[in-house]
Design goal:
Elements lengths: L1 H17 L2 H17 L1 H14 L5 H7 L3 H16 L7 E6 L5 E8 L2 E6 L4 H12 L3 E5 L5 H17 L7 E3 L5 H9 L6 E5 L2 H10 L12 E5 L5 H13 L8 E7 L3 H18 L6 E4 L1 H4 L5 E2 L13 E7 L2 H11 L4 E5 L3 H10 L4 E4 L19 E2 L7 E2 L6 E8 L6
Parallel strand pairs: 3-4, 3-6, 4-5, 7-8, 7-12, 8-11, 9-10, 9-11, 12-13
Antiparallel strand pairs: 1-2, 2-16, 14-15
């Protein structure tokens, strides 16, 4: 059945490639409308997933949970994708050869884009929208935790396609949830033009190591925030609170806080008050601070192990380390970062510039929360994943990153 789906997806590539931008936008708006209309059915399916996910903690269930507001936001993201310029056919470069040849480098779709993901059902809608707008066909393979939710979402998206008389095979959901179905997508070279894994380290590693189809490595997020000796402390506290607690289960949440030794005695008690004590008084989940030995001399908390500084917690846990200066912060990040998103909080431009130049991550921030590493937040409408590799795409991947390019050479009888 999977191979039959892949065959149909491959056939639909010609449909996707030849759609006018106006047709794509009409379909995207119809898909958004169908999602909102089917909110009750989608929430019912999501509730089945939530009730079955007894093995997940509250934070991870939050990744899985849909609400009316979240479905409305997903629909808004689809409409935003529709409003973006068509990436297909963009002339990226052009020049004339001395022999008269006119040479152009032109943006074109990949073809069939497969995405293997885990428990976030919004990925199905984001991927479908970005794939359609960029002229691609998508094949979705979700985790068992989100299957009912994704099936309901895809059903609505296909309803939107039907209302525009478009081929339903532009959007495909793999119903087989066995490991074998994932292996087939990883090795279906005849049908899959690009594979993108979205999920935990295990899923990403399995795809990168076993895929024979082209694969983009989307990264886990061990995101750092370094509080420099020249930081505005109140600004730093606000940014860290947002980066750690606004949604700790996502890959752009802060996992490690590095603090300059010159302000540690003043800053760390304020950090503990903001993330631990104040939250406990307000009935919120307090953050567990895992502290290096120098930090433990200033505030109470859990003693950090070496592993804590190389862990994506995806929870209300923050590893804290005191460093001597910006150079040590940069060195620590180089050793422990997954090259996703890292930030410096400072009012000294020299240190900001040094951090920007020397931190080798897909997104580097100065005085802002790492939570902005998101396609929607950066004006891409949505994202199909956040690439932490350097070839082809890096950072949040929107419609432009779902295109490759080809050379078009126009002549008048030239021979070599």
């Amino acid at each position: 059945m999977i191979y039959e789906m892949l065959k149909n997806a491959k056939k639909a590539v010609s449909v996707a490639t030849n759609l006018k931008d106006s047709d794509k936008n009409r379909a995207l708006n119809a898909m958004a409308k169908a999602l909102v209309e089917d909110t009750s059915a989608i929430l019912a399916a999501n509730n089945e997933d939530i009730e079955a996910a007894t093995h997940l903690g509250d934070v991870m269930k939050d990744r899985l949970r849909l609400t009316e507001e979240r479905i409305s936001s997903i629909a808004d993201a689809i409409r935003k994708v529709a409003s973006l310029p068509d990436p297909n056919g963009r002339i990226l470069d052009c020049h004339s050869h001395a022999n008269g040849l006119q040479i152009s480098k032109v943006s074109v779709p990949f073809g069939v884009v497969a995405v293997i993901f885990e428990s976030r059902p919004n990925v199905s809608a984001d991927t479908a929208a970005l794939a359609l707008k960029s002229g691609n066909v998508c094949v979705l393979r979700c985790g068992k935790e989100s299957y009912n939710s994704c099936r309901a979402i895809v059903s609505s998206l296909k309803k939107g396609l039907r209302s525009c008389n478009l081929d339903e095979n532009l959007i495909n959901l793999v119903e087989d949830r066995s490991r074998e179905s994932a292996n087939i997508l990883m090795t279906a070279n005849e049908y899959v033009d690009l594979l993108i894994p979205r999920g935990g380290a295990g899923l990403i590693r399995a795809c990168v190591e076993n895929a024979t189809v082209p694969c983009i490595e989307t990264g886990t997020g061990i995101c750092h925030i370094y509080v420099d000796e020249y930081a505005d402390i109140e600004k730093a506290l606000n940014i860290i609170e947002n980066a750690k607690t606004s949604r700790p289960s996502v890959c752009n949440a802060e996992e490690v806080c590095l603090v300059n030794k010159k302000i540690a005695a003043k800053f760390l008690p304020k950090l503990k008050e903001r993330l631990v004590d104040s939250r406990a008084r307000e009935g919120k989940i307090p953050v567990e601070l895992r502290l290096c030995e120098r930090s433990l001399e200033i505030i109470d908390g859990t003693k950090a192990s070496d592993a804590d500084f190389s862990t994506e917690f995806l929870d209300y846990i923050l590893a804290v380390k005191i460093v001597d200066n910006v150079n040590e912060a940069i060195s620590h990040i180089a050793l422990h970062s997954t090259h996703h998103s890292d930030a410096i909080i400072t009012e000294l431009q020299i240190n900001a510039d040094k951090f920007i130049k020397n931190v080798d991550s897909a997104a580097v921030y100065v005085n802002a929360s790492t939570r902005f590493t998101d396609g929607g937040e950066l004006g891409l409408g949505a994202e199909i994943g956040i690439s932490t590799q350097k070839l082809h795409a890096r950072g949040p991947m929107g419609i432009n990153e779902l295109n490759t390019y080809k050379y078009i050479i126009r002549g008048n009888g030239q021979t070599r």
